[in-house]
Amino acid sequence: MPMNQHELYILNNFDFIARSFARMHSLGQSVDLEAVTGNMDEAQREWFYFRYEFYCQQALRVRSPEVEH
Q1: Quick one: which of 57, 53, 52 has its CA closest to 18?
Q2: What is the mean pLDDT of each run of 10 residues along the chain (69 residues)?
Q3: What pLDDT score does 31 carry?
Q4: What's the CA gap between 56 and 53, in Å, rounded?
Q5: What CA–CA distances, in Å, run from 49 to 57, 65, 69?
Q6: What is the DSSP letter of 33?
Q7: How far does CA 14 lie from the centroid of its chain?
């Protein structure tokens, strides 16, 4: 079933929020993900956590790039 415009808008906003909180986390700020995802349904929460983890890993790679010899 294709997503409607409203669902795409919500996911786009959640992606922005996930990226923002992952950046905060990478800078050492405390992030309460339960508070952030408290009003999300299960599918939205799962998607949010997946994107948050992706952005956290991305930030980690940027902060500690592998050194090539």
Answers
A1: 52
A2: 67 87 94 93 91 93 61
A3: 93
A4: 5
A5: 12, 24, 35
A6: H
A7: 7
pTM (2 d.p.): 0.76
**Is the Cβ–Cβ distance between 25 and 31 less than 8 Å?**
yes
Which DSSP letter does residue 4 get? P
Cβ pair 2, 33 in contact under 8 A: no
d(CA 15, CA 10): 9
Contacts of 58 (CB under 8 A, 6+ apart): 22
Residue 51 CB partners (closer than 8 Å, separation 6+)? 14, 15, 18, 19
Give 14's Cβ-side CA count (13 Å radius): 24
CB 39 within 8 A of CB 9: no
